[in-house]
């Protein structure tokens, strides 16, 4: 079963500490935005890190929905995995207002958190 972000946070793990780090981050102008933390199996051996949610993903707990999500599911299936086997966490923890390069500086900031 794929865990949603609420159950991961209640699960009490390193992800909980990471969530609080991200939630309290003040390194960019989006620090007060809704956090797109991540979804999936918190014990997964495989983590996928897309750049950011697309506008079409907004309002969903999941990244990689729509056509991109269908392709992602096919790729997982081809290697005998499903979303239940992986964890997905975007580099950007907010949904950009448009698909452009204007959020490039934020990628550097958010990327540094992932490297921790």
UniProtKB/TrEMBL annotation:
Pfam families registered for this protein in UniProt: UDG
Domain Uracil-DNA glycosylase-like: 37-115
Swiss-Prot/TrEMBL GO biological process terms: DNA repair
MF term (GO), any: 4 iron, 4 sulfur cluster binding
Protein name: Uracil-DNA glycosylase-like domain-containing protein
Iron-sulfur as UniProt keyword: yes
Keywords: 4Fe-4S, DNA damage, DNA repair, Hydrolase, Iron, Iron-sulfur, Metal-binding
UniProt entry tagged with the keyword Signal: no
